[in-house]
Amino acid sequence: MIDMANLLGFNSKVITLYIKAGSKLFNPDLLTYRLLLMEPTEAKAYVDHLYDELHGHWERRISQGPFMTRLREGHLPLPCLRRFFKDWGMFSIEVVALNAVSYYVHLPFFVRNYDLLPAFTEKIAEELISPTPPGHTLILLETAEALGLSRQEVLGEPASAAGRAISDYCRRIFQDGSIIELWGLHVYEETLGLWSKQWAEALTSHYKMSKRQAIYFTAHAEADLIQHDGRMGHGPLNRMILQRILEQDMTASKLGYDLKYCAFTMVDLQSLMENHAIENPYPA
Question: Distance (Å, rounded) from C-alpha 48 to C-alpha 62?
Fold first, then answer.
């Protein structure tokens, strides 16, 4: 029998400490059996712990990393910001398109769990049509222009190798991964709200941008964390979807990646992009 704890990226000690069902703790001796029969309280505790671990990893690698530390202080040269945003822009537009693809790939799950379907489709639609079509691409280009980047530079030129890595990883998970591998990746999305807030504050405080010019980051600070314009925040929605996946034992892996790997790798690849931007300002 498959050891689902190892597949999901946790050991028996973590399960014993963090997953409760009423007054009952997991029995490590019955771990495989119990994980196949997760109750809602167990699945929620599991998801909450994974998110806590991811936030800790993000705090160490991104928030306290050299790029964001210098950005918050206003000491990061503008050409380094340009390099990062030039690479980030193509990733941003590609992942929005991949989200739309995932709607088709995993449609049977959302049909069975119809209560999740309105919020999920609204998330996809918002990214494509808000504020007007083509959606978030418009605010991406608005902030790019304020940083001194043209549409051609952001969307028409290849990203650097270090900047391309996160896009290629996402495409691998979205197209070839299982549903639990994909929503393991989506755990990362909640950090983008916190990260975007730091960017928005730095741009308006230290880089002479208006709040409107920093719109890409101000919009994502809301969208990825909290309810906005009557819509559920992306982070809370992703938590609900991952919990439901665990409750229904949809834990089969196609790529051999556990949940923790799927989530942590996104942070590591963002860190790679940031460090590359420090060392390779644009224009050179």
Answer: 20
